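During the reporting period the student researcher (J.K.) took over the structure-prediction task from the postdoctoral fellow and processed the backlog of single-chain submissions. One of the processed entries is reproduced below for the supervisory committee.
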Amino acid sequence: MRKILFCLLAMALVMPLTAQIRGNNIVVTVEPDHQDWNYAVGQTCTMQVEVRRSGTLVPDVAIDYEAGPEMYPTEKQSLTLKDGTMRHRGKMSTPGFYRLKVTAHVDGRDYVGLCTAAYAPEQLRPTTVDPQDFDTFWSRAIEEARWTQLEPTKTLLPERSTKDVNVYEVSFQNVRWGSRTYGILCEPVKPGRYPALLRVPGAGVRPYQGDVWTAAQGAITLEIGIHGISVTQPQEIYDRLASGALNGYPNYGMDDRDQSYYKRVVIGCIRAIDYIEQFTQWDGEHLGVTGSSQGGFLSLATAALDKRVTCYGAVHAAMCDHTASLRGIACGWPHYFYKNEKIKEFNNDNNARVVTSRYYDGVNFARRIKCPGWFSFGYNDDVVPPTTAYATYNVVTAPKELSVYQQTGHYWYQEQWDEWTAWLYKQLGIKRP
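J.K. obtained the following C-alpha coordinates:
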Protein backbone atom coordinates (compact mmCIF):
# COMPACT_ATOMS: atom_id res chain seq x y z
CA MET A 1 0.00 0.00 0.00
CA ARG A 2 2.85 2.35 0.84
CA LYS A 3 4.40 1.74 -2.60
CA ILE A 4 1.08 2.53 -4.28
CA LEU A 5 0.65 5.73 -2.28
CA PHE A 6 4.23 6.72 -3.07
CA CYS A 7 3.65 6.21 -6.79
CA LEU A 8 0.44 8.24 -6.72
CA LEU A 9 2.19 11.05 -4.86
CA ALA A 10 5.08 11.01 -7.34
CA MET A 11 2.64 11.21 -10.25
CA ALA A 12 0.83 14.12 -8.62
CA LEU A 13 4.11 16.00 -8.28
CA VAL A 14 5.34 15.27 -11.82
CA MET A 15 2.13 15.93 -13.80
CA PRO A 16 2.01 19.69 -13.10
CA LEU A 17 5.58 19.89 -14.39
CA THR A 18 4.92 18.02 -17.63
CA ALA A 19 1.37 19.06 -18.53
CA GLN A 20 1.25 22.04 -20.89
CA ILE A 21 -1.28 24.51 -22.23
CA ARG A 22 -1.37 24.04 -25.98
CA GLY A 23 -3.51 26.07 -28.40
CA ASN A 24 -7.21 26.91 -28.11
CA ASN A 25 -10.33 24.82 -28.27
CA ILE A 26 -11.93 27.57 -30.38
CA VAL A 27 -10.15 27.94 -33.73
CA VAL A 28 -10.80 30.41 -36.56
CA THR A 29 -9.41 29.23 -39.89
CA VAL A 30 -9.21 31.33 -43.05
CA GLU A 31 -8.14 29.35 -46.10
CA PRO A 32 -7.45 30.62 -49.66
CA ASP A 33 -8.49 28.72 -52.79
CA HIS A 34 -4.92 28.64 -54.13
CA GLN A 35 -2.63 26.19 -52.41
CA ASP A 36 0.40 28.48 -52.74
CA TRP A 37 -1.59 31.58 -51.66
CA ASN A 38 -0.40 33.36 -54.84
CA TYR A 39 -2.58 35.16 -57.41
CA ALA A 40 -2.23 37.15 -60.58
CA VAL A 41 -3.01 40.87 -60.41
CA GLY A 42 -6.75 41.32 -60.91
CA GLN A 43 -7.58 37.68 -60.13
CA THR A 44 -10.26 36.99 -57.51
CA CYS A 45 -9.20 35.24 -54.33
CA THR A 46 -11.89 33.25 -52.52
CA MET A 47 -11.27 32.63 -48.82
CA GLN A 48 -13.18 30.08 -46.75
CA VAL A 49 -13.77 31.03 -43.11
CA GLU A 50 -14.67 28.47 -40.43
CA VAL A 51 -15.11 28.85 -36.68
CA ARG A 52 -14.82 25.54 -34.83
CA ARG A 53 -15.09 24.33 -31.26
CA SER A 54 -13.52 20.93 -30.55
CA GLY A 55 -13.19 20.50 -34.29
CA THR A 56 -16.89 21.10 -35.07
CA LEU A 57 -18.49 24.21 -36.52
CA VAL A 58 -19.92 26.78 -34.08
CA PRO A 59 -23.46 27.86 -35.06
CA ASP A 60 -24.69 31.45 -34.81
CA VAL A 61 -21.26 32.85 -34.06
CA ALA A 62 -20.72 36.62 -34.07
CA ILE A 63 -17.70 37.87 -35.99
CA ASP A 64 -16.03 41.07 -37.11
CA TYR A 65 -13.83 41.13 -40.17
CA GLU A 66 -11.66 43.53 -42.09
CA ALA A 67 -10.27 43.03 -45.57
CA GLY A 68 -8.03 44.77 -48.07
CA PRO A 69 -4.34 45.54 -48.61
CA GLU A 70 -2.40 44.62 -45.47
CA MET A 71 -2.27 47.40 -42.87
CA TYR A 72 -4.79 49.36 -44.96
CA PRO A 73 -8.12 47.45 -44.93
CA THR A 74 -10.82 48.93 -47.15
CA GLU A 75 -13.74 46.82 -45.90
CA LYS A 76 -14.98 46.25 -42.34
CA GLN A 77 -18.15 44.47 -41.27
CA SER A 78 -19.83 42.72 -38.33
CA LEU A 79 -22.20 39.79 -38.84
CA THR A 80 -23.40 36.44 -37.50
CA LEU A 81 -22.43 33.20 -39.19
CA LYS A 82 -25.44 30.89 -38.98
CA ASP A 83 -23.48 27.70 -39.63
CA GLY A 84 -20.06 28.96 -38.48
CA THR A 85 -18.77 29.47 -42.03
CA MET A 86 -18.55 32.11 -44.72
CA ARG A 87 -16.79 32.81 -47.99
CA HIS A 88 -15.09 36.08 -48.78
CA ARG A 89 -13.93 37.26 -52.19
CA GLY A 90 -11.36 39.94 -52.84
CA LYS A 91 -8.68 40.99 -55.28
CA MET A 92 -5.96 43.54 -55.95
CA SER A 93 -5.28 45.54 -59.08
CA THR A 94 -1.61 46.15 -58.23
CA PRO A 95 1.16 43.92 -56.81
CA GLY A 96 0.86 43.48 -53.05
CA PHE A 97 -0.79 41.43 -50.33
CA TYR A 98 -4.53 41.19 -49.66
CA ARG A 99 -5.48 40.26 -46.10
CA LEU A 100 -8.71 39.02 -44.53
CA LYS A 101 -8.72 39.15 -40.73
CA VAL A 102 -11.64 37.58 -38.84
CA THR A 103 -12.34 37.98 -35.12
CA ALA A 104 -14.91 35.57 -33.64
CA HIS A 105 -16.62 36.33 -30.33
CA VAL A 106 -17.32 33.16 -28.35
CA ASP A 107 -18.28 33.03 -24.66
CA GLY A 108 -16.96 36.49 -23.98
CA ARG A 109 -13.58 35.89 -25.60
CA ASP A 110 -12.11 36.88 -28.96
CA TYR A 111 -10.44 34.45 -31.38
CA VAL A 112 -8.61 35.64 -34.48
CA GLY A 113 -7.85 34.01 -37.80
CA LEU A 114 -6.40 35.56 -40.91
CA CYS A 115 -5.19 34.84 -44.40
CA THR A 116 -3.00 36.96 -46.66
CA ALA A 117 -2.98 36.39 -50.40
CA ALA A 118 0.00 37.43 -52.52
CA TYR A 119 -0.51 39.33 -55.76
CA ALA A 120 2.55 39.22 -58.04
CA PRO A 121 4.94 39.68 -55.10
CA GLU A 122 7.97 39.22 -57.35
CA GLN A 123 7.08 42.61 -58.87
CA LEU A 124 7.14 44.51 -55.56
CA ARG A 125 9.71 47.28 -55.25
CA PRO A 126 10.58 49.35 -52.18
CA THR A 127 9.91 53.07 -51.81
CA THR A 128 12.93 54.17 -49.80
CA VAL A 129 15.58 56.38 -51.39
CA ASP A 130 19.19 55.18 -51.54
CA PRO A 131 21.34 58.08 -50.17
CA GLN A 132 24.27 59.04 -52.37
CA ASP A 133 26.61 59.12 -49.36
CA PHE A 134 25.32 55.91 -47.76
CA ASP A 135 28.59 54.03 -48.27
CA THR A 136 30.71 56.96 -47.15
CA PHE A 137 28.64 57.41 -44.00
CA TRP A 138 28.99 53.80 -42.90
CA SER A 139 32.64 53.33 -43.89
CA ARG A 140 33.54 56.45 -41.92
CA ALA A 141 31.48 55.30 -38.92
CA ILE A 142 33.27 51.93 -38.88
CA GLU A 143 36.67 53.56 -39.27
CA GLU A 144 36.02 55.97 -36.39
CA ALA A 145 34.80 53.16 -34.15
CA ARG A 146 38.00 51.22 -34.77
CA TRP A 147 40.04 54.08 -33.34
CA THR A 148 38.95 52.56 -30.03
CA GLN A 149 40.64 49.26 -29.22
CA LEU A 150 38.35 46.30 -28.45
CA GLU A 151 39.86 45.71 -24.98
CA PRO A 152 37.84 42.49 -24.56
CA THR A 153 36.75 40.73 -21.39
CA LYS A 154 36.05 36.99 -21.18
CA THR A 155 34.43 35.18 -18.26
CA LEU A 156 33.92 31.42 -18.25
CA LEU A 157 30.37 30.26 -17.42
CA PRO A 158 31.03 26.75 -16.07
CA GLU A 159 27.34 26.06 -15.37
CA ARG A 160 26.61 26.45 -19.11
CA SER A 161 29.71 24.72 -20.44
CA THR A 162 29.78 21.07 -21.49
CA LYS A 163 32.49 18.51 -22.10
CA ASP A 164 32.62 19.63 -25.74
CA VAL A 165 31.96 23.38 -25.48
CA ASN A 166 33.30 26.19 -23.32
CA VAL A 167 30.79 28.98 -22.78
CA TYR A 168 31.81 32.52 -21.87
CA GLU A 169 30.28 35.92 -21.36
CA VAL A 170 32.41 38.34 -23.36
CA SER A 171 32.42 42.07 -23.94
CA PHE A 172 34.36 44.50 -26.10
CA GLN A 173 34.43 48.20 -26.89
CA ASN A 174 32.01 49.45 -29.50
CA VAL A 175 31.79 52.97 -30.96
CA ARG A 176 33.78 54.72 -28.23
CA TRP A 177 35.64 54.03 -25.02
CA GLY A 178 33.26 52.75 -22.34
CA SER A 179 30.53 51.83 -24.84
CA ARG A 180 30.65 48.03 -24.76
CA THR A 181 28.87 45.19 -26.52
CA TYR A 182 28.18 42.05 -24.49
CA GLY A 183 27.51 38.54 -25.72
CA ILE A 184 27.78 34.80 -25.16
CA LEU A 185 30.72 33.10 -26.86
CA CYS A 186 30.65 29.32 -27.35
CA GLU A 187 33.86 27.60 -28.45
CA PRO A 188 34.64 23.93 -29.07
CA VAL A 189 36.95 22.51 -26.40
CA LYS A 190 38.98 20.60 -28.96
CA PRO A 191 41.84 22.74 -30.33
CA GLY A 192 41.57 23.72 -33.98
CA ARG A 193 40.33 26.31 -36.46
CA TYR A 194 36.57 26.59 -36.89
CA PRO A 195 33.88 28.35 -38.92
CA ALA A 196 32.04 31.07 -37.02
CA LEU A 197 28.42 32.15 -36.68
CA LEU A 198 27.31 35.53 -35.34
CA ARG A 199 23.77 35.53 -33.96
CA VAL A 200 22.12 38.97 -33.80
CA PRO A 201 19.00 39.60 -31.71
CA GLY A 202 15.40 40.43 -32.32
CA ALA A 203 13.90 43.50 -30.66
CA GLY A 204 13.56 43.74 -26.91
CA VAL A 205 15.65 43.64 -23.76
CA ARG A 206 16.61 40.21 -22.46
CA PRO A 207 19.42 37.88 -21.37
CA TYR A 208 21.01 35.41 -23.78
CA GLN A 209 22.04 31.77 -23.52
CA GLY A 210 24.38 31.36 -26.49
CA ASP A 211 24.30 28.77 -29.26
CA VAL A 212 25.90 25.80 -27.52
CA TRP A 213 24.36 23.28 -29.93
CA THR A 214 26.01 24.69 -33.05
CA ALA A 215 29.32 25.01 -31.22
CA ALA A 216 29.08 21.32 -30.30
CA GLN A 217 28.87 20.51 -34.04
CA GLY A 218 32.20 22.21 -34.65
CA ALA A 219 31.78 25.98 -34.89
CA ILE A 220 32.45 29.15 -32.95
CA THR A 221 29.23 30.98 -32.09
CA LEU A 222 28.80 34.47 -30.71
CA GLU A 223 25.35 35.70 -29.70
CA ILE A 224 25.33 39.41 -28.88
CA GLY A 225 23.02 41.84 -27.15
CA ILE A 226 22.64 45.39 -28.40
CA HIS A 227 22.06 47.53 -25.33
CA GLY A 228 25.55 47.75 -23.84
CA ILE A 229 24.67 45.78 -20.72
CA SER A 230 25.62 42.34 -19.41
CA VAL A 231 23.53 39.54 -20.95
CA THR A 232 23.63 37.21 -17.93
CA GLN A 233 21.65 39.21 -15.38
CA PRO A 234 18.33 38.18 -13.73
CA GLN A 235 15.27 38.65 -15.94
CA GLU A 236 13.80 41.33 -13.68
CA ILE A 237 16.65 43.70 -14.54
CA TYR A 238 15.82 43.53 -18.25
CA ASP A 239 12.11 43.90 -17.54
CA ARG A 240 12.78 47.11 -15.62
CA LEU A 241 14.96 48.49 -18.40
CA ALA A 242 12.38 47.56 -21.04
CA SER A 243 9.73 49.49 -19.11
CA GLY A 244 12.09 52.30 -18.15
CA ALA A 245 15.25 53.66 -19.76
CA LEU A 246 15.02 51.48 -22.89
CA ASN A 247 11.29 51.81 -23.47
CA GLY A 248 10.83 52.84 -27.10
CA TYR A 249 14.54 52.63 -27.92
CA PRO A 250 13.96 52.11 -31.70
CA ASN A 251 12.84 55.75 -31.85
CA TYR A 252 15.81 57.22 -30.01
CA GLY A 253 17.76 59.75 -32.07
CA MET A 254 15.81 59.25 -35.28
CA ASP A 255 16.06 62.94 -36.13
CA ASP A 256 19.81 62.63 -36.74
CA ARG A 257 21.66 59.83 -38.51
CA ASP A 258 24.62 60.22 -36.13
CA GLN A 259 22.45 60.08 -33.02
CA SER A 260 20.23 57.15 -34.00
CA TYR A 261 20.21 54.33 -31.45
CA TYR A 262 20.85 51.91 -34.27
CA LYS A 263 24.17 53.46 -35.30
CA ARG A 264 25.80 51.95 -32.24
CA VAL A 265 23.87 48.70 -32.76
CA VAL A 266 25.00 48.22 -36.35
CA ILE A 267 28.60 49.15 -35.55
CA GLY A 268 28.45 46.67 -32.66
CA CYS A 269 27.82 43.87 -35.15
CA ILE A 270 30.92 44.82 -37.13
CA ARG A 271 33.00 45.00 -33.98
CA ALA A 272 31.68 41.57 -33.02
CA ILE A 273 33.26 40.23 -36.20
CA ASP A 274 36.45 42.11 -35.31
CA TYR A 275 36.37 40.23 -32.01
CA ILE A 276 35.84 36.87 -33.72
CA GLU A 277 38.76 37.53 -36.07
CA GLN A 278 41.18 38.73 -33.39
CA PHE A 279 40.31 36.69 -30.31
CA THR A 280 38.94 33.30 -31.42
CA GLN A 281 40.14 30.29 -33.41
CA TRP A 282 38.10 31.30 -36.47
CA ASP A 283 39.26 29.56 -39.65
CA GLY A 284 39.30 32.84 -41.59
CA GLU A 285 37.13 31.39 -44.37
CA HIS A 286 33.59 30.68 -43.17
CA LEU A 287 31.60 33.32 -41.26
CA GLY A 288 27.83 33.62 -41.13
CA VAL A 289 25.45 36.08 -39.52
CA THR A 290 21.82 35.36 -38.79
CA GLY A 291 18.77 36.60 -36.92
CA SER A 292 15.06 37.25 -37.14
CA SER A 293 12.97 40.42 -37.05
CA GLN A 294 15.31 43.16 -35.79
CA GLY A 295 17.99 40.48 -36.09
CA GLY A 296 17.00 39.97 -39.72
CA PHE A 297 17.71 43.64 -40.36
CA LEU A 298 21.03 43.40 -38.52
CA SER A 299 21.92 40.35 -40.62
CA LEU A 300 21.35 42.37 -43.80
CA ALA A 301 23.34 45.31 -42.46
CA THR A 302 26.27 43.19 -41.32
CA ALA A 303 26.44 41.19 -44.54
CA ALA A 304 26.40 44.42 -46.54
CA LEU A 305 29.06 46.25 -44.54
CA ASP A 306 31.55 43.49 -43.79
CA LYS A 307 33.30 41.50 -46.54
CA ARG A 308 34.38 38.86 -44.01
CA VAL A 309 30.76 37.62 -43.92
CA THR A 310 30.38 34.67 -46.28
CA CYS A 311 26.67 33.94 -45.76
CA TYR A 312 23.63 35.25 -43.90
CA GLY A 313 20.16 34.10 -42.92
CA ALA A 314 17.46 36.77 -42.62
CA VAL A 315 14.09 35.64 -41.23
CA HIS A 316 11.14 38.07 -41.41
CA ALA A 317 13.59 40.98 -41.45
CA ALA A 318 12.26 44.13 -39.77
CA MET A 319 13.22 47.76 -40.45
CA CYS A 320 12.71 47.56 -44.20
CA ASP A 321 11.05 50.21 -46.38
CA HIS A 322 10.18 52.62 -43.57
CA THR A 323 8.74 55.23 -45.95
CA ALA A 324 6.24 52.92 -47.65
CA SER A 325 3.45 54.11 -45.35
CA LEU A 326 3.91 57.65 -46.69
CA ARG A 327 2.40 56.22 -49.88
CA GLY A 328 -0.27 54.14 -48.16
CA ILE A 329 1.70 50.90 -48.49
CA ALA A 330 2.55 48.49 -45.68
CA CYS A 331 5.80 49.51 -43.99
CA GLY A 332 8.35 47.64 -41.91
CA TRP A 333 8.57 47.52 -38.13
CA PRO A 334 8.81 49.73 -36.13
CA HIS A 335 6.39 51.52 -38.46
CA TYR A 336 7.93 54.95 -37.97
CA PHE A 337 5.45 56.85 -40.13
CA TYR A 338 2.37 54.61 -40.02
CA LYS A 339 -0.89 56.35 -39.05
CA ASN A 340 0.96 59.42 -37.90
CA GLU A 341 -1.26 62.47 -37.44
CA LYS A 342 1.49 64.60 -38.96
CA ILE A 343 2.07 62.30 -41.90
CA LYS A 344 1.96 65.18 -44.41
CA GLU A 345 4.92 66.76 -42.62
CA PHE A 346 6.93 63.60 -43.24
CA ASN A 347 6.09 63.42 -46.90
CA ASN A 348 9.05 65.44 -48.10
CA ASP A 349 12.78 64.96 -48.56
CA ASN A 350 13.67 67.68 -46.07
CA ASN A 351 12.16 65.95 -43.05
CA ALA A 352 14.93 64.86 -40.69
CA ARG A 353 13.26 61.59 -39.66
CA VAL A 354 12.63 60.60 -43.27
CA VAL A 355 16.23 61.34 -44.22
CA THR A 356 17.61 59.48 -41.18
CA SER A 357 15.44 56.44 -41.82
CA ARG A 358 17.15 55.85 -45.16
CA TYR A 359 20.49 55.15 -43.47
CA TYR A 360 18.81 52.53 -41.27
CA ASP A 361 16.63 50.85 -43.84
CA GLY A 362 17.28 47.16 -44.49
CA VAL A 363 16.50 47.72 -48.16
CA ASN A 364 19.52 49.95 -48.66
CA PHE A 365 21.78 47.38 -47.02
CA ALA A 366 20.22 44.54 -49.03
CA ARG A 367 21.11 46.37 -52.25
CA ARG A 368 24.81 46.10 -51.36
CA ILE A 369 25.12 42.47 -50.28
CA LYS A 370 27.54 40.30 -52.27
CA CYS A 371 27.48 36.97 -50.39
CA PRO A 372 24.79 34.22 -50.48
CA GLY A 373 21.69 34.64 -48.34
CA TRP A 374 18.67 32.67 -47.14
CA PHE A 375 15.34 34.46 -46.61
CA SER A 376 12.18 33.21 -44.97
CA PHE A 377 8.95 34.84 -43.81
CA GLY A 378 5.23 34.30 -43.56
CA TYR A 379 2.37 35.94 -45.42
CA ASN A 380 0.36 36.31 -42.18
CA ASP A 381 3.00 38.37 -40.37
CA ASP A 382 1.39 41.53 -39.00
CA VAL A 383 4.62 42.87 -37.46
CA VAL A 384 6.91 42.58 -40.47
CA PRO A 385 4.54 42.81 -43.46
CA PRO A 386 5.33 40.43 -46.32
CA THR A 387 5.05 43.45 -48.61
CA THR A 388 8.29 44.80 -47.15
CA ALA A 389 9.90 41.37 -46.81
CA TYR A 390 9.34 40.54 -50.48
CA ALA A 391 10.32 44.01 -51.72
CA THR A 392 13.58 43.71 -49.79
CA TYR A 393 14.27 40.24 -51.15
CA ASN A 394 13.63 41.49 -54.68
CA VAL A 395 16.41 44.10 -54.57
CA VAL A 396 19.13 41.58 -53.62
CA THR A 397 21.33 40.84 -56.63
CA ALA A 398 23.70 38.38 -54.91
CA PRO A 399 22.92 34.63 -54.78
CA LYS A 400 19.84 34.12 -52.64
CA GLU A 401 17.22 31.60 -51.63
CA LEU A 402 13.67 32.19 -50.44
CA SER A 403 11.60 29.76 -48.39
CA VAL A 404 8.09 31.07 -47.72
CA TYR A 405 5.95 29.59 -44.94
CA GLN A 406 2.71 31.30 -45.88
CA GLN A 407 0.70 30.61 -42.74
CA THR A 408 3.24 31.87 -40.24
CA GLY A 409 2.95 35.23 -38.55
CA HIS A 410 5.82 36.74 -36.58
CA TYR A 411 7.15 33.34 -35.57
CA TRP A 412 8.46 30.20 -37.25
CA TYR A 413 7.57 26.53 -37.50
CA GLN A 414 9.89 23.69 -36.50
CA GLU A 415 10.34 22.74 -40.15
CA GLN A 416 11.28 26.34 -40.93
CA TRP A 417 13.87 26.38 -38.14
CA ASP A 418 15.31 23.07 -39.34
CA GLU A 419 15.61 24.35 -42.90
CA TRP A 420 17.17 27.60 -41.70
CA THR A 421 19.77 25.73 -39.63
CA ALA A 422 20.55 23.23 -42.37
CA TRP A 423 21.22 26.01 -44.89
CA LEU A 424 23.60 27.81 -42.54
CA TYR A 425 25.41 24.60 -41.64
CA LYS A 426 25.91 23.78 -45.31
CA GLN A 427 27.28 27.22 -46.07
CA LEU A 428 29.64 27.09 -43.10
CA GLY A 429 30.78 23.53 -43.76
CA ILE A 430 29.36 22.25 -40.48
CA LYS A 431 28.46 18.58 -40.44
CA ARG A 432 24.94 17.92 -39.14
CA PRO A 433 24.58 15.28 -36.41
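The committee noted the following: The longest helix spans residues 261-279.
J.K. will present the remaining backlog at the next meeting.
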